[in-house]
Sequence to fold (672 residues):
Amino acid sequence: MPFASSIPLRQRLILDQLLAAPGRLTAREIARAVGTSVRTIRRDLPQIEQLLRAYQIPLHRKAGTGLCLGGAPEHQAQLRQELPTSRVGQVRPVDRQAWLTCQLLASSGPLKLHALAIDLDVTITTITADLDVLDPWFRTRRLTLQRKRGHGVSLQGTENDRRHAIVEVFFVQFDEAALLSLCRDAARPVPPAGDALLHPAWQLLTPGHLPTAARLIDTCEAAGHFALEPAARLEFALHLAVFLERTGARRYCERLPGADAQTATLVEVLRPHVMGLVSFAPPEAELERLARFLQGLGAPPVDEKLPLLAQQFLLECESRLCVPVGADPALLDGLLSHLHRTQHRLRHHLEIRNPLLDQVRQNYPDVFAVARAAADATFVAPVLPDPEIGYLVMHLGSALQRRRQRRWRAAVVCPSGIGTSRLLSSRLRIELPEIDVIAVRPAHEAAAIDPAGCDLILSTVVLDLPHRRHVVVSPILPENDVRKIRATLAELGSPPQTVACAGGEALARLSDSHRRASFTLDLLHRWRVCRFTPGSASLTDALADLMAPLLADGTLAKGETHLDQLAHRLGQTPLVLPGSQLVFLHVRDHGITRPSLTLHVPERPIATADGTTIRQCLLMLAPQDLEPAQTAILSQLSSLFVEPATVAILASGDEAAARDYFARTLDQSPQN
Fold:
């Protein structure tokens, strides 16, 4: 029986996941696939169960193992057959915007906002807001949204740029395995109307074009005309399928510059095969375009200028980062290998795609800005696009990480060997963590320092030392002194490799340090400030609201009885920090899946059992079973909470500032 009413898109996606799964799926796995939270998945399950009852399919749930569909196989087969015909409702903004993107790419003229609003069952205001979101995406692909009152919205730009955008849409909406499957599925039927919002890219291609393109490539490779790697083969199949679609609608590309003798040879190779697929003679510019793509997807020729350009790029980065990244041979090798293929693709008008670009920009904005400026100063023809800059940032980040893992040895000198030397050592740990202070000496003993035993001598007074590794700095280490030290390190090149200890001692120490660092980083990465609306003015009654985000992200295991017990234990351990309105709650329990440190801020004050007003709740949770080193780190954190500096920074509610404060404090600990 077909569905009687529309199905929200998210619930449709959940059903797709359950039908396709060979076994059980956890709510977290479904949430990751659908792109939502575990809490939202659980909220949708009752409605999904109601939909499944019409097909006599039970939804089996088992704590700790996940979800699966039951019932007879024929009932599941019926659901699988009828689900695509259902009407999709309650579309997420991201899916609505993907559908609009494909509508605009497919259109040859303006689209009326009123008609788009009717198709999506939303208001014209919503459509306008979606177009505002899409406008930057199109502009980065050299396409422009043109909006006029009474005219509608249309997409302006070259046919070549429009086709590149279409290919990118397919790579975004389908993973590599799905695209390979589509290339092999010659008998795939026309997608049902219900798939228009789930897979809007199907508006852009006739289903049979991808298998046809794949067969053409098979024929050419079998004849020895060319050979492509699997990834390049898939990309060329998409370009070929888009060519069949667009030229079939008499929408032709402009001629690309830079054709050469090899281009002409490939045009003649492709011509008879392409002519066998179309009922008309395509313009020569279309065949040249396909030939250029084949050139760009093949093995790049040797570029003798590229090593010099790569070195120049690293010098530009060094001048901006004040870090000698050019001394890292692995970085140069990685850049050369990557840029070699990138330059080849760009010269043949192939786009660079980087699915991690937004994440790289967000996580490493400073390094991205440096790489962008350095690339603009180095690579002129062709100019490197932002997706490629994202890849360069990854290479630079790896080099910076390697550099942090290799240590410089420094001796610190001050007039007496105490006092200011301690201040300078502390500042060095914060500003230059790659430097290890191996000795602190008074000025009258500076001449006795063995130059072979350290890489650098940092002093707060002028010393009569002959070698260039002596730097005079202020004990408070201002920014100009930091730059001075970095410049000296750049002159010295890479820090020397340390000699391994005997008997595996060094390996054991490194392993222990790695475990400590990984545990600390994981804990700090999960640190967050959560704001919540308490259901009660009592701390005890508000604990369930306080724990909700930790239940949603999996820090707390499910189970009402368990959660009630945990709330009771938390209510027994409140500690109001001195001079604050912040309560510290901590507990270890088998129902806690991983260590967690979070700050919870109620929208209105709450009170403890003795009437103390509370405006913040600091919550530390940990599993029952912890390694001794992990317990020590949590204990060290706990000891910080009575410090006035800690209370002050927590009172600000600044998540990033608190994370940095904890990181600096733990980094200065002798245990770390």
